[in-house]
Specification:
Blueprint lengths: L1 E4 L11 E2 L1 E2 L34 E3 L4 E6 L10 E6 L3 E6 L12 E8 L5 E8 L4 E8 L8 E7 L10 E8 L7 E10 L12 H10 L3 E4 L3 H4 L22 E2 L5 E2 L5 H11 L2 E6 L16 H15 L5 H8 L10 E4 L9 H19 L4 E4 L12 E7 L1 H6 L13 E8 L22 H16 L4 E6 L3 E3 L10 E3 L7 E2 L1 H11 L4 E2 L2 E2 L7 E8 L4 E8 L6 E7 L7 E8 L16 E8 L5 E6 L3 E7 L1
The structure holds alpha-L-arabinofuranose.
Alpha-L-arabinofuranose (AHR) binds next to loops.
EC number: 3.2.1.55
Catalytic activity: Hydrolysis of terminal non-reducing alpha-L-arabinofuranoside residues in alpha-L-arabinosides
Family: Belongs to the glycosyl hydrolase 51 family.
């Protein structure tokens, strides 16, 4: 394939290009990024998932029972646990399918009510009963009042596995009434940037390593809710943890609300990510929509949320944000209205009044915000952008290489959820009834995503940025695979997928401008995008080879780049089409960088093997 790249005439690309999408699914937050180690820490319930003693067992002969007391810890946390016992009594938590114990400081706390004169013992133990760390906490507990206790645990060595538990015990003989009531029992390992109520370090590191540029949150289906009442409510995810009621996610488990709006913004701050905030748009997954006459309250709710994030401390909600520790307003440049409003019978109401109501109100109050519709299946008004999602087979990803070629640049598009999910089997798109989804991204799927991403990069003036979705999966409890990063309770096992490596290569070689390329050979099996980084002046060629019977010879010239110029060529390959990076396993993606020199006519000559992803950058 002979390719000639011009010196100019391309388009400026977005500097967001690659980002992340997060919603509570796959225990990616609860039991994942959100570093809390205690599962079911506050016995929160909902109609869908009633309060339970899930993850809890009693110490020795003591007994546990859920109580809805007349004087609960808070209105948001009405259910607590009563521990009854005359001897050594208490409760044990099995964590999010294990607890990682290593020599580091664990910060814990709990609320307790009842007349008790002894002390509490907080411990981490292995399943076979070995104590890994333990501390005594002098009781301040009194009758008729919830009193918070804090403690730290400092294990001396690393446990041999994560089959460990946390326990909180007391001497039942010193309890006046024969029982104590507990709630909001919490334990955190060291977090990213040492933030209280913060994020798990290894997962943040895996995200930081990708050098992402934006974060789309908080969903996804989980934003929408199963019902209108069950929607994600921003104002129930802020403030002290005891005032966050939690809710039923749309993904078969409850969330505590501990990983809330402020935590999302702190995540953006910590990794320097542009927030792309999704606001609820009047559609729930069961197809219920808010009628036009009742939509105002939800539009106002979105404006309040924006005031909370961006308003000065003189505004009602800006003052609330300051009260919760963030006097400096954040900046929000992108707001997406809803999620996949083209589905669940939502499109006609979205087109006829829902989107316009949010678009008009947000644009009027915040003219600098780029408002995005959650679909491109409609005529977008004004300056609105759209959001396009694609879950499909590798073959269908490759077929969509030219999908954006004829798209107008008037309405920028976010590629807000992208993943090759299903193996090629002759099927067209996702068959939701089959079990064909891969557990992890697999190499041919990742190469096909690369082809699609190249189609987007060629049209990068039209694309705001792209994110794989879902991003994270806890292998011990998940609803959707594959994901960009997979993990379990052991941080040493975290797996960066094959797609992670493709995104990493493309993201780290950012083109500020595309450059037009000509070739008589057409696209396929070699697909590519060409451009320049105006800061480094480096010319860039990004490519993927899909379905080739032999290595593809490439002769590449860049106008103005002469004989002898050096370039780095990085080629990613994998042992075979179905190779995957698995939790606890080794990285199977082979990355090889060689330096090559331009020949007599300034041409770079090299060969790319089938199922490879490559980037060439001139020095
Ligand atoms: O990413 C998983 C789900 O896929 C999202 O919640 C939804 O937006 C899409 O259908």
């Amino acid at each position: 394939v002979t390719i000639s790249v011009s010196k100019s005439g391309g388009n400026a690309t977005s500097n967001l290009q690659y980002g992340a999408m997060e919603e509570e699914i796959n225990h990616c937050g609860e039991g994942g990024l959100y570093a809390e180690l205690i599962r079911n820490r506050a016995f929160q319930g909902s109609d869908k998932f009633p309060s339970s003693l899930d993850a809890w067992t009693a110490v020795g002969d003591s007994s546990l029972s859920l109580q809805n007391l007349s004087d609960p810890l808070s209105a948001a946390l009405p259910t607590s646990v009563r521990v009854k016992g005359s001897g050594s009594a208490g409760l044990i938590n099995s964590g999010f399918w294990g607890i990682d114990v290593r020599p580091q400081k664990y910060s814990g706390s709990f609320y307790v009510k009842g007349d008790y004169s002894g002390s509490f013992t907080a411990s981490l133990s292995s399943l076979d009963g070995k104590k890994l760390a333990s501390t005594k906490v002098k009781s301040k507990s009194v009758a008729g009042e919830w009193v918070q206790h804090e403690f730290t645990l400092n294990p001396k060595s690393k446990a041999s596995s994560t089959n460990n538990t946390f326990s909180l015990s007391f001497d039942g003989s010193k309890v006046k009434d024969g029982y104590l009531d507990f709630n909001l029992i919490s334990l955190f390992p060291p977090t990213w940037n040492d933030r209280p109520n913060g994020m798990r370090r290894d997962l943040m590191q895996a995200l930081k390593d990708l050098d992402l540029k934006f974060l789309r949150f908080p969903g996804g289906n989980n934003l929408e809710g199963d019902t209108i009442e069950g929607r994600w409510k921003w104002n129930e995810t802020i403030g002290p943890l005891k005032d966050r009621p939690g809710r039923a996610t749309t993904w078969q488990y409850g969330e505590t609300g501990g990983f809330g709006l402020i935590e999302y913004m702190e995540w953006c701050d910590d990794l320097n990510l542009e927030p792309i905030l999704a606001v609820w748009a009047g559609l729930a997954l069961n197809g219920d929509t808010v009628p036009e006459s009742e939509l105002d309250v939800h539009v106002q709710d979105a404006l309040d949320e924006l005031e909370f994030l961006t308003g000065s401390v003189d505004t009602k909600y800006g003052a609330l944000r300051a009260k919760y520790g963030h006097p400096e307003p954040w900046k929000i440049k992108y707001v997406e209205v809803g999620n996949e409003d083209n589905l669940n019978n939502g499109l006609s109401s979205y087109k006829s009044y829902r989107f316009a109501a949010f678009y008009d109100a947000i644009s009027e109050k915040y003219p600098d915000i780029q408002v995005l519709a959650s679909t491109i299946d409609m005529t977008l008004e004004g300056k609105a952008g759209g959001d396009y999602h694609l879950y499909d087979t590798p073959d269908n990803f490759v077929k969509k290489f030219d999908f954006f070629d004829n798209q107008s640049s008037d309405h920028p598009i976010l590629l807000g959820e992208i993943a090759a999910t299903e193996f090629n089997n002759g099927g067209e798109g996702i068959n939701w009834d089959d079990t064909n989804f891969s557990l992890y991204p697999w190499w041919i799927g990742s190469v096909s995503e690369a082809v699609f991403l190249l189609g987007a990069e060629r049209n990068a003036d039209k694309i705001i940025g792209t994110t794989y979705a879902p991003f994270l999966m806890n292998l011990d409890s998940y609803q959707w695979s594959p994901t960009m990063i997979s993990f379990d309770s052991n941080p040493d096992n975290t797996a960066k997928s094959t797609s992670w490596h493709v995104y990493d290569l493309f993201n780290k070689n950012h083109m500020t401008d595309t450059l037009p390329a000509t070739s008589k050979d057409g696209f396929g099996p070699l697909y590519y995008a060409t451009g320049v980084n105006s800061e480094t002046k480096s010319r860039i060629f990004k490519a993927a080879v899909y379905n080739s019977t032999e290595d593809v010879p490439v002769s590449l010239t860049f106008s103005g780049v002469g004989r002898g110029t050096k370039a780095d060529l990085t080629v990613l390959t994998a042992p075979d089409a179905f190779s995957m990076n698995e939790v606890g396993g080794a990285n199977i993606v082979n990355s090889k960088t060689t330096t090559i020199k331009a020949g007599k006519k300034g041409e770079f000559s090299f060969k790319l093997p089938n199922l490879s992803v490559a980037v060439l950058t001139t020095n």
